[in-house]
Ribosomal RNA small subunit methyltransferase G
Amino acid sequence: MVPVPEVAGRVFGDGLGQAVQFAEMLERYGVQRGLIGPREVERLWDRHLLNSAVIGEQIGDGVRVIDVGSGAGFPGVPLAIARPDLDLVLVEPMARRADWLNEVAESIKLDVTVVRGRAEEKALRERVGAADVVTSRAVAPLARLAGWCLPLVREGGMMLAVKGASARDEVARDAKAVARVGGGAPTVSECGVGVLETPTTVVRVERVRSARRPRRAG
């Protein structure tokens, strides 16, 4: 079993037991079910669970959150464990991964809703409605991601995208594309500073208005 880092208790609080159960499920089944790579097992806590949970620093109390492209459960499952006050919906297009998310929720008694579908599809948007916050991690470049996620955000709400070292480059490159789909100026911040050895980089975009309609030719 992968050792549980001491900081996990600080991040997950009363949910530490659920976090340990989730880590054990991933360690046992994640590789064989194609959810994580073999090299990720030893990095489950720092690279995945803790990295995901700390984004809760940027989310208000008791709000509705939609996690787009949840996959193996990141960032949605650790976020739900660390922040049980949130009303959290996990959106995942692949059937086998949606099944996994339902198994996780049932096994660790996690109060989340799992919806199979693609964020870019109108039917999915109508089904899940709007949220105060839409989260994602390693789903798509920022311009495409904003086109998928911002329509799920209520006006005045925000999109939180967990990104890596390319975050600032993506913001510089894609800011105009984000504006076209109703987003404000993207900002880059870090979560877990002073808690994690490597803080989590997050791109935050507020939904300021509806998407611009393309101009008609002629």
Notes: The mean pLDDT is 94. The domain at 7-206 is CATH 3.40.50.150 (Rossmann fold). The longest strand covers residues 153-163.
